[in-house]
Design a protein that fits this description.
Elements: H1 3-21, H2 31-54, E1 106-111, E2 118-119, E3 125-134, E4 145-151, E5 159-160, E6 170-178, E7 184-193, E8 199-200, E9 205-210
Parallel strand pairs: 2-9
Antiparallel strand pairs: 1-3, 3-6, 4-5, 4-7, 7-8, 7-9
Length: 211
């Protein structure tokens, strides 16, 4: 049973007792009226204390303390620029022994041996000699070569110069050939190459006939 209900029952009992004592019409100063008045005052006091006791002060709940949450930074920190790399340009190195001459040239002077149209039986070995002039601005060294370039090779092989040839000078170059067995006219054309492998100048040739 709740306290409020118990107090209410007590008050009802007190009031009822007072009414029972006041049956009839007693005077204002009679014992019955005095008792009734005392009971009423007692009941009022009980009601007041009960009402005060039943009032529960409101509980004040303190506001929660808000803890600031750090917001992650979305800013992207750019890395420092890479150090510039200097690229050195290395000049091209010419092949070993290569001539740095800007102008190589040659001129045909004469057929020293085997004039054009000479007749040879098939299988005959012969030597052809050309005389060439250095008409360029640089000396030919012994790395310069006379090579076959077109026509019928006639068994000829590449020849290196045997001595340096300065500008304006001439040199005789000899190549060994073999007449083919096929009848008819046969031509073999050759040319000079410098020490860097570049062809230049005139293209001397040998021309024979196999009857």
């Amino acid at each position: 049973m709740s306290p409020r209900l118990s107090f209410s029952l007590v008050i009802v009992a007190l009031v009822s007792a007072g009414l029972a004592c006041s049956t009839g019409t007693p005077g204002p100063n009679s014992d019955a009226n005095l008792r009734a008045t005392g009971l009423a005052q007692t009941a009022a006091a009980i009601l007041t204390s009960t009402a005060q006791a039943s009032i529960t002060p409101a509980t004040v709940t303190p506001s929660p303390t808000l803890t600031p949450v750090p917001i992650p930074s979305t800013a992207t920190v750019a890395p420092p620029p890479a150090a510039a790399t200097a690229t050195a340009t290395v000049p091209a190195v010419p092949p070993a022994g290569a001539t740095a001459c800007p102008s190589n040239d040659s001129d045909f002077v004469l057929d020293v041996t085997i004039p054009d149209g000479t007749h040879f039986a098939g299988g005959t070995v012969f030597n052809k000699t050309w005389r060439l002039r250095n008409s360029g601005s640089c000396t030919w060294n012994t790395s310069f070569q006379l090579r076959y370039v077109s026509g019928d090779a006639l068994g000829g092989a590449t020849i290196n110069l045997t001595a340096p040839v300065p500008p304006g000078a001439t040199t005789d170059i000899t190549v060994s050939f073999t007449a083919p067995t096929a009848t008819g006219s046969h031509t073999s054309r050759w040319q000079l190459f410098d020490d860097a492998g570049t062809a230049f100048g005139t293209k001397p040739y040998v021309q024979i006939t196999v009857p």
